[in-house]
């Protein structure tokens, strides 16, 4: 089990064509023993319902494994999608990389 923080930065669009690749990568990290995962969304311009599903799946899998997942650096459009979907109330979302890293590093 790794205590280091694994950072994943999806870029561009997270939709039906790109979500399966991100899902595979996230689950490999979790199944491989990573227990602190940071999704840095600073380079993400669009997220679909399929992308939201992947984020939720990773959060559930990480919780079940006893780890922590955080998101950071959402632009205004992505923030709106997370708020409308209700995901902003069930996920740990931080304004920037430093704040998310600090939260993940805390015991």
- Please state the CA-atom Rg, rounded to the nearest Å: 13 Å
What is the overall silhouette? globular
CATH superfamily placement: STAS domain
CATH topology: Transcription Regulator spoIIAA
Number of helices: 4
Mean pLDDT: 96
Q: Based on the structure given, which CATH architecture is correct?
A: 2-Layer Sandwich
Strand content: 15-25%
Largest sheet: 4 strands, parallel
- How many structural domains can be distinguished in the coordinates? 1
Number of strands: 6
CATH class: Alpha Beta
Identify the strand order in the major beta sheet: 1-3-5-6
Helix content: 40-55%
Characteristic terms for this protein:
107 residues; alpha/beta; Transcription Regulator spoIIAA; four-stranded parallel β-sheet; two-stranded parallel ribbon; 4 helices; 45% helix
Describe the 3D structure.
The longest helix is centred in the middle third of the chain and has 16 residues, at 49-64. The chain has helices at residues 19-31, 49-64, 76-85, 97-105; strands at residues 6-8, 12-14, 36-40, 44-47, 68-72, 92-94. Helix 1 packs parallel to helix 2 (49-64). The model has no long low-confidence stretch (mean pLDDT 96). Helix content is 45%, strand content 21%. It is globular. 31% of the residues are buried. The protein has 107 residues and is an alpha/beta fold. It has a single domain (6-105), classed as 2-Layer Sandwich (Transcription Regulator spoIIAA). The chain contains 4 helices and 6 strands. It starts with 5 loop residues before the first strand and ends with a helix. The strands form 2 sheets. It has a 4-stranded parallel sheet, sandwiched between helices. The protein has a two-stranded parallel ribbon with strand order 2-4.
